[in-house]
Amino acid sequence: MHLAAFITAGPGRPGGWRMADSVPGWLDAGYYQNIARTLEDGRFDLAFFPDILSVPDRFGGSTDSQLRYGALGSLRVDPLPVIASMAAVTRHLGLAATVTTTYTQPFNIARTFASLDHLSAGRAAWNIVTSFQESEARNFNLDQQFDRSTRYERAHEFLQVTGKLWDSWDDDALVLDAEQPLFADPEKVHRIDHEGHYFSVQGPLNVPRPPQGYPVLIQAGASSKGKDFAARWSDVIFCSHASKESAQAFYTEIKERAATFGRAPEEIKILPSITPVVGSTTARAKELAEEIFELVPPIGGLSTLAYHLDVDLSTFPLDERLPEVEVPGVAGHYHEVREITEREGLTLRELGKQYGGRYEGNFIGTADEVADGLQDWFEDGAADGFTLQVPYQPGGFETFTRQVVPQLQKRGIFRTEYEGTTLRENLGLARPAAGEWKRRSGARA
How far is 119 from 359, CA to CA, in rounded Å? Predict the structure, then answer.
């Protein structure tokens, strides 16, 4: 079993930041470094940071609900300097930052993550997203966002270019022979001369090939195009499901899609999101879950859902069910809330509260009971591991590490020591050889 921690560099869930045990240290490097130490003590594979490039205004065309309720994106620190600070106090923990392909250039991304991979001794990971919010587009000199098809076509070429750039240095190109002198062998450093539809990049990169070959690539596509992109490119897939059955269906589908692109199923690790609540007794865990849930303002949850779906939910009656809608945003979250709405008959107001305070996987109980649930999903074809979200930071990570991790270790399904020195080694993933981008992209050699 593999474990990632989903950490928000700012308040994450509306309500969670109001908990007495929540510590608002989002602007303090020490806050993240302490979380990093906790996760490494718990032998987690990686820390994973999402990101947003605007204060969302999708609910009612206003940022009011996000800011008022501390909802998604109300405050979000750039994750790249955060993971760099965490790298300085850890030796094994993988470090993943979300960076969009929509408002960046391949050279910048290739250089940044190659640098992070070297400076962390092979522990860098890139969560690849294609931004979809109008509010983000307006922060980058655009009147409107790209459509979904364009976003993924552009991202596909983006990944080809970053792969070429990481491969522009042979693994043994940096010689450092002071006698000759020969710093780097010019025969082993190559221009890429990429000329494509979206990008023109000469190269080479001015950073040697990363220790991992490529940093670990993470993606969370849930639309048809997104799942194809993830099955082609991803090493790790982050996803969210309302039931074990939907997680199993997604797991099977992605592994099958990967095979159609010439990839082995074990080349992709699928880590669905979970939000466990752990108590000393089952009753106490349920009581704690209810206490946290009661702190969630329904409008705060709805504004977060509106952002994820890219649909202005303020236009629908709050005391009726969410109708079927076209979703320009995250298809996976829409499937999740449709499943919950139909199963529980929720009104939109109730859905907002439920979404803002949802506990993915419904793992609520003692440490032993939570471990039972995780083992069931893991052994029943729903996951290769999990991405831990917590209702409040940093205490949720500390509780899980102290109480649930030992239960998983006792069952022999989670490590007691790190197996390797790089993130790829700890995930059981092979180091990509030069030219791997061709295989994943389907490009001709």
Answer: 36
272 phi/psi in degrees, rounded to 5: -65, 150
Structural tokens at position 310: 């890219």
Q: What is residue 441's three-state secondary structure? A: helix
Q: Do residues 89 and 61 lie in contact, with contact meaning Cβ atoms separated by under 8 Å?
A: no
Structure-token match 């989670």, residue found: 414
pLDDT of 361-412, one tens digit each?
889 999 999 999 999 999 999 999 999 999 889 999 999 999 999 999 999 9
Give the pair of three-digit tokens for residue 85: 């600070």
Looking at residue 444, what is its pLDDT?
Answer: 58
- Spatial contact of 371 and 407, defined as CB atoms under 8 Å apart: yes
Residue-wise pLDDT for 417-436, tens only, equals: 999 999 999 999 999 999 99
Contacts of 27 (CB under 8 A, 6+ apart): 77
| Residue-wise pLDDT tens digits, 232-251 | 999 999 998 888 999 999 99
CB 92 within 8 A of CB 46: no
Please, which contacts does 316-325 make with residues 24 or more away whose CB atoms are closer than 8 Å?
A: 316/348, 317/348, 318/347, 318/348, 318/349, 318/352, 319/347, 319/348, 319/349, 320/347, 320/348, 321/345, 321/346, 321/347, 321/348, 322/346, 322/348, 322/351
Q: Where are the domains of the chain?
A: 2-281+363-441
Please report how many Cα atoms fall inside a 13 Å half-sphere around the Cα of residue 111, on the Cβ side: 9
The matching CATH number, chosen from 3.40.50.300, 3.30.365.10, 3.10.120.10, 3.20.20.30, for 2-281+363-441 is 3.20.20.30
Question: What global pTM score does this model have?
Answer: 0.93
